[in-house]
């Protein structure tokens, strides 16, 4: 059984995402949702960093996380038909590279907001 971590923070983040989805609906590009989410996170006084780079050990490559919330949750946003296993694996890779334990993968591209909590 998975242990819930950062329950209140996760609730607040998903709530901010729902506010953005309620306002915009589906159909915009990821960058539009990211910009709107940045405004909503500020309005809700949620501490975040946007487009944070994480190095991959021993390689000249890096991952760019959409948002880091409170220095302890990765928030990856998408605007696609549906979330896939490959996006979950990508988020797991971000968690491994960053040493962060929780990732939230959020999709604005469906009729209703969808999300997955991913633990490392």
UniProtKB/TrEMBL annotation:
Alphabetically sorted, this entry's keywords are: Ubiquinone
Offer one Pfam family short name for this entry: PDDEXK_3
Name of the protein this chain belongs to = NADH:ubiquinone oxidoreductase
């Amino acid at each position: 059984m998975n242990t819930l971590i950062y329950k209140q923070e996760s609730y607040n983040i998903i709530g901010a995402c729902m506010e953005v989805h309620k306002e915009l609906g589906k159909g915009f590009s990821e960058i539009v949702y990211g910009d709107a989410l940045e405004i909503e996170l500020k309005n809700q006084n949620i501490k975040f960093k946007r487009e944070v780079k994480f190095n991959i050990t021993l390689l000249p490559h890096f991952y760019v996380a959409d948002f880091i919330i409170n220095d302890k949750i990765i928030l990856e946003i998408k605007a696609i038909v549906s979330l896939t296993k490959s996006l979950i694996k990508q988020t797991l890779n971000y968690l491994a590279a960053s040493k962060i334990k929780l990732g939230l993968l959020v999709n604005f591209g469906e009729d209703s907001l969808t999300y997955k909590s991913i633990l490392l």
